[in-house]
Amino acid sequence: MTFDTLIIGGGHSGLQQGIALQKQGRSCLIVSTGESPRRFRDPEWSQEVERHRFEDLGGFWLEDRVLGGEFSGTNEGEILNRIFTESRGEKALDAEQFILATGSFYSGGLMADPEHVWEPLFGLDVFFEGGHKDWVRPDFFAPQPFMSFGVLTDAEGRVLRAGRPVLNLLAYGSVVSSRCAR
Fold this sequence. Notes:
By secondary structure, the protein is α/β, with parallel strands linked by helices.
């Protein structure tokens, strides 16, 4: 089945994008690994309520883990052709447009070791500075450097991969670096 838009991540950002697109008449599928960590930070927000709202508008929900995608190149950049998930194996999911809304470190949208930060699904370009000792400040209430880390995008919100835009893959929410072009 092909969708207008496939959203990777069923937390607040992914669901809000899905609801907005469904209201515009676009067919959407959200692929989510399950419960959003936002519930622990914002007890007033309910993923279940937002999911039902999305589905009531005609959206589709798939609880599954995205393993990666297949890309092709053009003169202007790259295209994400399809994604693969854990439960579907070789049966790929296709869409015209993709949205990455996987969150940051707490939900696995970004990964880190003591010296690097990376985006685990597609190997997208990520902004980070220094090593682990530079990522936090001793004052817990001070702005923390790691909070600006994330996927790099161009001025249109398209993610960058090896310095080139992925023309049909946008990023929203806490997976995006605060140091992007937009």
